[in-house]
Amino acid sequence: MPQPAHALPALLDTDAQPFARTGFLPARAPVLHLPGSFQALLDLIPELAGAYGGGGVRPLIREAAQAWPADLTRASRDLSGDQRDALLSAAAVLMHLYRWDAVPVHPDRFHEVPDFPPALNRLFRTLSAARGLPPCGNLYTLKYLNWRSPDVTPGEPYDAGMLRAGNVQMARVFQAGLAGEQLDLWIQTFVLAEARGQAVLHAGLAALRAAHEQDRPALEAALLALRDAVRAVAREVNVFTRFHVIRTDLWRVYTQPTFGWGLTERGPVLEGASGLQLGATQFADLALGVPLHGPLGRALRHSRAYLPPEQRAFLRAWEPHRYAVRRAVLAWGDTRARDLFDACVQDLARWRVSHRERGSAYLRGDGQEHVMASTGTQFAAGTPHDHAFRQLMDSRIEDTRAQRTKPEPP
Ligand code: HEM
Asked: Does Nucleotide-binding appear among the keywords (predicted)?
């Protein structure tokens, strides 16, 4: 039986949430400048681009870090929250560059715990801990805090709907030339997919509310909006992940290397690719009740550890209600509600099918032997894993389709 409306926790009242307008993107547009000596860290990043695509960035980062004031980490406490986020993002990018040193990534880098410059290491770990994030290169710090748009004001609130292809750029590009352009497109893909995720969040929660209130017209309207929102996420990703836009022959060697990493001194910190941290699909799975079992389901749950605490709390609050919409549709929804629910499931499964097909094209790359600087830690570095990837995705696609209320038409 559906529960009464008051059973929904206050945390699920999106209108009151900081992410009501922006989904899991930062609630205010990323800050692009920092006061005093902090700006030097931001300025350093583009200066490293040439060396990152050449002889390596490590000596340059070590030298630069020596010139930073001794009390840099302590002084960061006086920055505003948005400024600290920008500094965390810059520190994460510098750690990222130091971690890999150069592209193409040398095979030795995969199993190494690098000797980071102490000033950078201290700053990064202190800021990560203060933000409630593990010391990782994650989606939030490397991508979601690293963009700009002429249509938003840094440090000010904005609406995710304002972000669209053509008006989002990477804020601090760390590769040069064509590789830099490709990196910019890659980061845009995630920022724009997450911007569309805001509509998935809204529609999913509207469906949940309608289910609790047993409001059939509201449930149908929410499911219609959810279907459109899931389609919009897929469209956004598919516009970019085409061989001549984000280039399949370059991605594995220059563009991907290698987003998502953990500091491994206490065992691998990170499970899976940073795509797992995408709010848009986390929301869609919750709204439609796609279970989190199997290897990918577990990795999806685990990957929430890399989200900021307020986002984790929000997903946690939604979790006990993940089957409420489907149950409502089955218990008192009419044919239209069932059709709409199944259309949502079908479109989420379609996104997963296109991600599988495009993902494997990118994993195959140009077909030449390369160090596998690929995404995710579920696969051994250096091992071609197109096949393993497809199997992993197949299981998630099956789990998604299984949520339909009626069998799939032949
Ligand atoms: C185009 C090249 C891409 C490749 C090769 C790729 C590869 C992968 C891999 C290997 C996984 C499984 C993670 C693991 O266990 O290691 C994964 C999962 C995932 N990726 Fe990607 N990915 C690509 C693009 C994207 C993009 C552009 C997005 C979204 C903006 C994305 C979103 C996701 C999501 C949401 C998952 C979790 C699985 C699911 O919900 O179905 N991926 N990807």
From this structure: no
Pocket test for ligand 1, best of 189, 296, 375, 398 (most atoms within 8 A of CB): 375
What phi and psi, each to the nearest 5 degrees, are found at residue 393?
-70, -35
Task: Answer yes or no: is the C-beta of 23 below 6 A from any ligand 1 atom.
Answer: no
Q: What is the pLDDT of residues 90-137, one digit of tens each?
A: 999 999 999 889 998 887 887 777 899 999 999 999 999 999 998 888
Instruction: Count how many Cα atoms sit within 13 Å of the Cα of residue 191 in the half-sphere of its side chain.
Output: 31
CA of 355 to the centre of ligand 1 (A): 7
Would you say 89 and 133 are in contact if contact means Cβ atoms under 8 Å apart?
A: no
**Is residue 407 situated within a structural domain?**
no
CB of residue 273 inside a 6 A radius of ligand 1 = yes
The domain tally of the chain equals 1
389 Cβ closer than 6 Å to some ligand 1 atom: yes
Atom of ligand 1 nearest to the CA of 194: 30
Residue 32 lies in a domain: yes
Instruction: Cite the beta strand spans of 221-282 per DSSP E.
Output: 261-262
**CA pseudo-torsion sign 76, 79, 80, 84:** negative
Task: Residue 317: give its domain's CATH number.
Answer: 1.20.58.480
Encode pLDDT of 134-177 as tens digits.
888 889 999 999 999 999 999 999 999 999 999 999 999 999 99
Domain for residue 410, yes or no? no
d(CA 110, CA 183): 21
Q: Which domain covers residue 253, as residue numbers?
A: 5-401
Q: What is the pTM of this model?
A: 0.94
Determine if ligand 1 sits within 6 Å of the CB of residue 281: yes
